[in-house]
Amino acid sequence: MYRSIILLFLLSICFSCQDTKSTKKETPQAPVIIDTLSKKGAPEETAPKSPKGTPGNPMIASQAELKPFLKKYGEENPETKIRIENRFGVIEVELFKDTPLHRANFIMLVKSGYFNTTQFHRVSPDFVVQGGNNDTKTTARNRQGIGRYLLPNEAKKKYPHIRGAFSAAKYSDQNVSKASSPFEFFIVQSHRGAHHIDGEHTVFGRVTKGMSVVDKMNKVSVDGTEWPEENIYMKVEIIE
Prior knowledge:
This protein is of the alpha+beta class. It has 5 helices and 8 strands. The chain has an 8-stranded antiparallel β-sheet with strand order 3-4-6-5-7-2-1-8. 35% of the residues are buried. Residues 1-40 and 48-58 have low confidence and may be disordered.
């Protein structure tokens, strides 16, 4: 009897020492999307860091009226040359006439003063510099005042993403038509170009002066989202 009690006691200790880890499967972690503006990635529309601003009266009320609006605006505003100034110097750009929607839209934004409240907000070393956003409420408010729309892709084989190409960023989500963001642009800095995004983005201009300025910008320190640690504000104006 005494031996039986001892045996039961030892068995209870043995069972209590077994692995008590839960057999419940771990919940899979959602994949983290990183490096959206890398040598292999494509420049995408960057969400402003600030909350949405107060809605304004849109200049372009709907996507349906976009083409006739920009066509008329382009006829009335034929300018093709712009100047971008920042703390590193001056960049001059020629906009292409045969990407009419992108040219007209950009000229419209320049004349409205939109870019003068924004900055070069993403820098990817040996790839591109991207501008047209900011981390203040002003930019979000200005965007809402201009309107919610996308520019139809106007990419052409004769305008590849070579060094100095002036191209439009785009939204990545459900964008099978490769439509462009109306507010953000990028300049290809790499001497090799960025031909892996040819056709995906619309090149609608070229830098004619100031690539040394672009090279300086491309060397600044950035945070984990490729936002420059020291802001690079811009002033954009029409040359002719």
